Structures are given as C-alpha cells and as structure tokens.
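Exam revision sheet. Question 4 asks you to relate a sequence to its structure. Input first:
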Amino acid sequence: MKTANGVEVEPLVDLSNVDLSNVNLSGMDLHRTDLTGANLSGANLSGANLCKADLRGANLTGANLTDADLSYAELECATLLCANLTRADLHGVMAEGASLAGATLTGANLRRADLFGVNLVNANLRKANLRYADLRDADLESADLRCADLTGTRL
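Answer key, structure tokens:
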C-alpha cells in the first residue's frame, strides 16, 4: 500500500514478479500498476501509459518504451539495459540506483527526475529534457548529452 500526501493509494492492478518478457503491451493503460520485480525484458511497451506505475526492481532490458508515459513512475533499482525510451515522458520519475546503460533516451522528458546514482554508461540522451533533474553520483561515462537541456540539473 503506497501513500500519497498521507492518503493510502492501492495499485489498480498487481502484476508484481510476473514474467511478461517479449509480450506486446503497446498502447496499454498500466497507470498505477504494481510491476515490482516483473520481467519485462524485450517487451513492447511503446505508447503505453505507465504513469505512477511501480517498477522497482523490474527487468526492462531491451524493452521498447518509445513514446511511453512513465511520469512519476518508481524505477528504483530497475534494469533498463539497452532499452528504447525515445521521446518517453519520465518527468518526476524516481529511478535511484537504476541501470540504463546503453539505453536510448533521445528526446525523452526527464524533467525533475531523481536519477541519483543511476548507471547511464553509453546512454543516448541527445535532445533530452533534463531540466532540474538530480544526476548526482550518476555514471555518465560515454553518455551522449548533445543538445540536452541541463538547466538547473544537479550534477
């Protein structure tokens, strides 16, 4: 049970620890879904609504999240190795300790995202909106930040 401003909020659907690898979930409405520890490797989540979803510890290796809405999602300790997050909306996301090594985040909205300690080695962040994001202790080795908006970003 999560709390939001002191009010208890239940997830709409509980898919925690479920194997959804290589499943086509494009365009699905999964907002507020509990996907903690779920295996979504290779899944097609393009255009999916994952707003406020709980993806802590989930495996999204190689997943297609193009144009997905992950705003305010919880991605702490999630694995998104080589995931495609082109134009994804990740504003306000909590992703402390997540691994996005080799991920494509071209044109993604990461405004006010908590990316503390995130692995972004070899990630493509071209034209990403990182305004006011927290990138302290993040590993940005060989990350492509060309034309990214870093206004107010904490490094």
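Marking note for examiners. The chain has two domains: 1-67, 88-122+129-155.
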